[in-house]
Amino acid sequence: MNGIILFDGECNFCDRSVQFILKKESEPYYHFSSLQSDAGKELIKEFGIPKNLDSMILIEGDTYFTKSSAALRVCKKLSGYWKLLYGLLIVPKPIRDLFYNILAKNRYKWFGKKDSCMLPSAEVRNRFL
Prior knowledge:
Blueprint: E1 4-7, H1 12-24, E2 31-34, H2 38-47, E3 57-60, E4 63-66, H3 67-75, H4 93-111
Parallel strand pairs: 1-2
Antiparallel strand pairs: 1-3, 3-4
């Protein structure tokens, strides 16, 4: 299986990010699972990911990435200029994560929260775990 993105299924910003990734992928690569789903919880357990982690999580192979590292690695598989953001991995992680943490901390206040996870459309349903 290719990369797996775990996301907050109740977060409007996270939902829009998943929709954006689906639209901008160079070719289908990622599978998705909300952190709240049974599949998401099982992956968290399987990979030994801290349960209190408030971040997007990217799983590739037997490794997982969080926060800005996950977001920028996702950009590598996007089309157009978006893939250039991958180069920001040269910025030290504490600086990158400072900005990521500000967005993560305020995402519900700025973008809102859902009562339940999104239902994927029929054409991409097979990409959700």
